[in-house]
Amino acid sequence: MERTFLRRPRAGRSDGAVLALAVLLLGGCASLQDGAQRLATLGGAISPYRMDILQGNVVVREQVEALQPGMPRQQVQAILGTPLVASIFHADRWDYVFTFQRQGQPPQRRVVSVFFEGERLARVHADGELPSEREFVASLPVRRPAGKPPVLEADEAQLRAAQGRAPAAAAPAAAQPPAPAATAYPPLEAR
């Protein structure tokens, strides 16, 4: 007697019901993820700190304008810095990649490629318009704490009060014995 291990579909279940159940479960995952995000930020009132991520070389317009065709590699490296990508398969190409991510700002990404013919600069290609140094610095707003900045100047009364305390503080220092003379140490390396 042969037994078959194939199961028959149960009565009352159809492929449509299974598909509907799967759609409901997957839809629930999305709402759970959204709910978890709202819980993590306490209803959107606060958000977790995400540190700034700066990677690569910042290359600005002034640096690229300083490059001239025919420059040796060492001079290009002195102006732009060490390239982030220098492939052995593309020995005549250096890529300067810059990425910056800061919470609450769109990410920045720039690529500048420098091409050589032998040991001399042939051309430079940037993937868009590069900012000037001033524009780049202005695009990075500094987070300052809210509130009034502290006053960094002392008025006459505060100066007199500080001068009145200074001699009393200086007296114990004068009563201490003088510091010992500098000691001669042997050289670190054998001669």
UniProtKB/TrEMBL annotation:
GO cellular component: Bam protein complex
UniProt biased composition (Low complexity): 160-174, 181-191
Alphabetical GO biological process terms: Gram-negative-bacterium-type cell outer membrane assembly; protein insertion into membrane
Residue stretches making up the Outer membrane protein assembly factor BamE domain: 56-123
GO molecular function, one term: protein-macromolecule adaptor activity
Lineage: Bacteria, Pseudomonadati, Pseudomonadota, Betaproteobacteria, Burkholderiales
Name of the protein: Outer membrane protein assembly factor BamE
Subunit record text: Part of the Bam complex.
PANTHER family: OUTER MEMBRANE PROTEIN ASSEMBLY FACTOR BAME
Xref: Gene3D superfamilies: 3.30.1450.10
Pfam family, one: BamE
The species this protein was found in: Tepidimonas sediminis
Top-rank taxon: Bacteria
Biological role stated in the UniProt entry: Part of the outer membrane protein assembly complex, which is involved in assembly and insertion of beta-barrel proteins into the outer membrane.
Membrane topology: Lipid-anchor
